[in-house]
Model the fold of this input.
Amino acid sequence: MISLTRNNFISRNTFLISSLLLIIIFLITRLPYYLHYSFLKISFDSASYCVVAFNILDLKTPLFEIRTPGYPAFLAAVWLFSKTMYCVSLMQSLFTLFTSLFFLKVINKYYRNLLLLFAVSLSVYISSSYYMALEPALLTEGLFVNLLILTTAFLIMSLKENKISYWILFSAAIAVTIVVRPAGLFLVSLIILIAIYFVIKKYSLKYYASLVLPFTVIILSLCAYNYATLKSFTITPFGESNMSGVTITFMEPSPEYPEFVNDAINKVLSEIPKKDGPYVRNSFGVTKLYDVFLFNYHRVINLVDNIMAYDSTLTYTEIQPMIRSIYVDAIKKYPEVYGKFVLVNFIQFFKNVSKTVILFDESEKSYRNIILEKKILKKLEEGGWQQVSSNPADYEKVINFYRDEIESHSNSEYVTVLESGQIEIRQTFLKTVYEFYEKVYNLLFRNIFWTILFGFTFLLSTYRLVKSKFSDTDAFIFFLIGIMFLSKALMVSLVECSLERYSYTVEFAYYFSLPFLILFLRKPKGNTETEHSVKD
Done:
């Protein structure tokens, strides 16, 4: 009787229990930062977001030559109330909590029997040390990863209910994700596949419109704005800079380039270790090739800086055609080297799940670089092209903001700088709990097992989808989640190095593999859901 009563209680309160589990994990991983260790988290990329946000706050026409408007608009909204990094970090963490609970609400409606397992999977995803290192940072990850979770929730709602309003939300969510971070363009693959699905299932025209129009209107509006302000009809003109990084080890001067462009290329090539150029052309060692590409990738900043140094009035948009010619010519001349780049980075994308990071070790390094040595601040003060803005006056705004933030974070009672120069972070109960959790987490969830599980579940979902003649909605849902991961892996590999920063954003596909696999194994092969009417 007692056992039956307990089971009835759990059954009636599954959502409450699942939400509490997620909240407990959320607090274990976030409270150390917000109560004791709220160290300043900025990177070299942060400044370009700040510039646009400052211009929005100053009611100046913002230019999106480097960054898209999504994240700067978020910063500006937060800074209307408190112009501090702490407030930005807090709002990003609260957004994580909101999107996570919303996702569980969606799962509770459609997969109630697996809700607790989904809650565990989602908690695992949002509590990795990579997640914790980047969520509070002044970077797009704090919004981007959560928008991916929201998009997935809307995807499930749309396929389960087949309502026009849900398809509109799904389409708009994809567009907003791209506006926050252009790397979200891999989500276009979902729109294409769902449109094909509509054709197969003979959906009426209004479904195509609800899938395509919200996305198209939002993206074209951004492109039109950029054309009006930058004379460039594009989501972001800066996106092409990545391709220069891809080809940095095998680009070459050309008689067709202006002399100052050839000088810029030669200067960058002189900085590359002499053995690296021949190695990428003649060798096939996957790990070594990845290391060489990664080591030299950042030199794209120097290339742009060298070109712009020729004429201080040049903007990034004006030199973009030159940048394009350099990387296009390099790929045309050495397609096999570019192919190696894509292949080794695609493989690396799947290997990243076996990598671990110790959060407080990274915090020590970050504190040293940002607070003690002030590397990022000094770099901006030195001038030159730092991916901030084509307007030198914008640099001063960021420099002043960074100075204030560094000053406010430089006297933490939880950090001791020893005479030897070593940094010692004070131990607290919350830090001890987090470090124990991190050890268990890395042991269980940072290994290649999850790549294998994902691959098996994706193949099974594909088989069930084809076998059911595209009537198995659950199989289609996980198939699309798998496509999200694969599309991201391919897009990253085509244009940049597969850092953990890029792969962790879609690792929820790994952890959602387990509940979906159990769902597929429980459900008979012939059991598909009744389709909703799609007729006018």
Summary: The radius of gyration is 24 Å. The longest helix spans residues 85-110. The mean pLDDT is 91. The chain has three domains: 1-139+356-412, 141-231, 237-333.
